[in-house]
Design goal:
Layout: E1 8-14, H1 27-41, E2 44-51, H2 62-72, E3 78-81, H3 91-103, E4 107-110, E5 115-116, H4 120-153, E6 165-168, E7 173-176, H5 178-192, H6 198-207, H7 220-228, E8 235-240, E9 243-248, H8 255-268, E10 288-290, E11 297-304, E12 307-314, H9 321-327, E13 338-339, H10 340-355, H11 358-364, H12 375-401, H13 407-450, H14 452-467, H15 471-482, E14 487-492, H16 495-498, E15 518-521, E16 524-529, H17 536-547
Parallel strand pairs: 1-2, 1-3, 3-4, 10-14
Antiparallel strand pairs: 4-5, 6-7, 8-9, 11-12, 12-13, 14-16, 15-16
Helix pairs in contact: 3-4, 6-7, 11-14, 12-13, 13-14, 15-17
Bound molecules: zinc ion.
Zinc ion binds next to loops.
């Protein structure tokens, strides 16, 4: 007997962002239920499509999309899900999904509701259920919204309450926390009157053993957070579902004092590029950042045996104990100190390598316009104008010889025409020079595109120019290429350190280092991130501006 061909099904499971109280609603539970169902009916499971964590009311469901696409390829004959409300975000949506699959001859089955669209009863019930599902969904949203609105209505705001306040259960309102109130006032006075920085305030609070809101140590960030928090002015506004709720708290600071703090903070903000000393050997100063901890990477020199050794180091990794106390951090960073020359070479070589590659030279080289800027046509027109003027000049002389005009008129007219003629002649010379330049450029470009030797010649010129750059010029080139961005230096940890750690590249130390951006130092492998995003167009423009190298980048980046 020939075995009966098994029906192939697709399972669809989904959880929404709102945790639902319904039993058996987690993804594994839904999956198990579908598997049991398939076994009981002798169905073959083609695939179980899972949409997790995305609320059906908010966004498209990628797995559902995939299932729809697979349905078009007839990969299954039936779609099974546990509850109807797993299957659509509203009655309309559910019905649209139904129709989609029905038109492909695929039936739908909801296990818990015992609903099968293959039957007449199923088709009837599905409309009612789809409507019901939407009502249920609305109720969930409503309940949540009611809860939030009720809190706002009562003037409660949200937990955790700001530092400095405590919730009085009996009176049902926020009150000052006596100790924390004093601390807040101390922070404000330290900042405004004693002119301390946020990190110094944190350090001094920690030294006096004052605890922060969760009993933790103070940090620069937590101080700034508190200084920026407008709640202390005694009022905060929430916009919720189109309604504005003003929550009142007992104020801890007068509005104009709070504003003064904000102004001072804005003033203290460090400019993006601090000024750089002239001929500073550290061309990457202010241009690199630690990819491990996010702190700046700064130049660091050591004098030994009369020689100066230059390094780049992570500010956090090389913080001395006193600074660490002030910054109030126990964190550290393992980014090794990197020999300045090595890091600079990695970055510069990347740029130089690109700019001196014949292929990129061609990409950056602008073809001169075919019409040579219209110079040719203009020259012809000016020559004919010149002819007209000469004729006019002759005519004036004729008029004088015939006694029609006097000597004075002759001189005035002759001079005026002479001026015009001279002006035209000058213009013609200028245009001819321009045309010659165009021709030379065209010739150069044609040679460049045809001759590899010429490309190499230009590459050599660029290479020499970069090598002859002063440190200031190198920094200029880098800044142009970086366009305000910063490069990041990252560690690629040793394999023995990184095993079991997620989201980190691993590479064995003894593997050969093929990528020039990756170097080994102090037992760590480091690499520069962001060199691939350098703007070579801008770098080329800088070269042209500084060294006059005729490389007009125009089409490198699409
Ligand atoms: Zn670091």
């Amino acid at each position: 007997m020939e075995p009966k061909k098994r029906i192939s099904i697709a399972g669809y499971i989904r959880v929404s962002r709102l945790k639902q109280a319904k039993m058996g609603s987690s993804l594994p539970e839904q999956r198990r239920e579908i598997e049991t169902y398939a076994r009981a009916h002798g169905y073959k499971i083609h695939q179980i499509y899972a949409d997790g964590g995305v609320s059906g009311a908010l966004s498209d469901r990628p797995a559902l999309m995939r299932m729809k696409a697979d349905a078009r390829n007839a990969l299954f004959q039936k779609v099974v899900f546990t509850y109807l409300d797993r299957f659509g975000r509203s009655a309309t949506d559910t019905l649209a999904n139904y129709t989609y699959f029905e038109e492909l001859g695929i039936t739908l089955h909801s296990i818990r509701e015992g609903l099968d669209t293959g039957t007449y009863l199923g088709r009837f019930i599905r409309t009612i259920l789809a409507g019901a599902a939407e009502m249920e969904r609305e109720r969930i949203g409503e309940r949540l919204a009611c809860g939030i609105a009720a809190r706002l209505q009562k003037g409660l705001g949200f937990k955790p309450y700001p530092f400095g306040y405590i919730w009085n259960e009996e009176k049902g309102k926020l009150e000052y926390h006596p100790d924390q109130k004093n601390t807040y006032e101390r922070i404000v006075d330290d900042y405004l009157i004693r002119n301390k920085s946020a990190s110094r305030i944190a350090a001094s609070l920690n030294l006096s053993g004052v605890k922060s809101v969760k009993g933790k140590k103070w940090t620069c960030t937590s101080i700034i957070y508190i200084l920026k928090n407008p709640t202390y002015k005694g009022r905060i506004s929430h916009n919720f579902l189109g309604k504005k709720y003003d929550l009142e708290f007992p104020a801890l600071i007068e509005a104009d004092r709070w504003d003064k703090i904000q102004r001072r903070m804005a003033e203290r903000r460090i400019p993006r590029f601090a000024s750089v000393p002239e001929n500073d050997p550290y061309i990457l100063r202010n241009l690199v950042q630690c990819g491990e901890c996010g702190y700046a990477i700064f130049p660091y020199s050591i004098k030994s045996k009369g020689k100066i050794r230059r390094y780049y180091v992570c500010r956090l990794g090389h913080m001395n104990p006193a600074l660490r106390l002030i910054a109030n951090t126990n964190k550290t960073c393992f980014l090794p100190s990197i020999k300045a020359k090595e890091l600079e070479d990695v970055v510069l070589n990347g740029i130089q390598e690109f700019l001196t590659r014949p292929a990129s030279v061609l990409q950056l080289h602008e073809p001169p316009s075919a019409a040579m800027g219209g110079t040719h046509g203009k020259i012809g027109k000016y020559y004919s104008d010149l002819g007209h003027l000469e004729t006019k000049r002759d005519a004036i002389w004729d008029l004088f010889n015939e006694g029609v005009i006097g000597k004075e008129e002759l001189i005035r007219g002759d001079n005026a025409i002479k001026d015009l003629i001279n002006e035209l002649k000058r213009e013609i010379i200028r245009l001819k020079e321009e045309r010659a330049l165009f021709k030379a450029r065209k010739k150069e470009f044609d040679e460049m595109t045809e001759s590899e030797a010429a490309q190499k010649e230009l590459c050599k010129k660029i290479k020499e120019a970069i090598e002859g750059f002063s440190t200031n010029e190198l920094r200029g080139l880098l800044r142009a290429a970086l366009g305000g961005a910063r490069l990041k230096v990252r560690i690629i940890r040793r394999r023995d350190l990184s095993e079991g750690e997620e989201g980190r590249s691993t590479e064995a130390m003894d593997e050969p280092v093929a990528d020039p951006n990756r170097r080994v130092r102090n037992g760590y492998l480091w690499m520069v991130e962001g060199t691939d995003a350098l703007d070579m167009k801008a770098a080329g423009q800088y070269l042209r501006a500084v060294k006059g190298i005729a490389m007009l980048p125009n089409q490198y980046i699409s």
